[in-house]
Amino acid sequence: MRFRYLEKSSTTAALHPWPARLVPPPRESTGAPNLRQTVTAATTSASSLGTTSPIEEVRTPEPVPATLEGSETILVVEDDDAVRKMACTFLTIKGYKVVEASNASDAIEIVTRDGKSIALLLTDVVMPGMKGRELVEQISKVCERLPVLYMSAYTEDAAVNSGILDRGTAFIEKPFGPDDLAAKIRELLGSNAMEQPSAN
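Request: output the structure for the sequence above.
Response:
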């Protein structure tokens, strides 16, 4: 049986590198123009020609959670030791308490014993013995409304097309950074850090 509780460190935790197979190529700069300069230039050009040029409406970006930090307890289920430790490190950096399990049977035992204290389940999609969706079906018998976030090196479309995930399921693709993970979790739990429910 392999699981343990992790508490937030008083100093910033050192980040372990992602496994090489999960590291994406570096992104190039998009070179996106400054919106204020673009709008000003368009307005000036139209004025100099003595015509009125309509300005294209700027799409409002999707809202970002007010905070990426939290104090809830997250159960992390992942059979790959390096990936599990990385996810746990990211969560403790953001203030979460973490319980980790390397397999589905350990996760079910944890939820059966401490389900009232767990705020969210973060689980891999594909694991030996029991897939993530099967794990969630078992856990839902104990904690019916426990929020779930799936993670996988598959793209979301690939996971859906292969039948291992349903369309619209909360999902994050590996590799991810601490802010990516925290933003997904706060979307599921709410943007404000919440008090941890009592286990009594």
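The radius of gyration is 21 Å.
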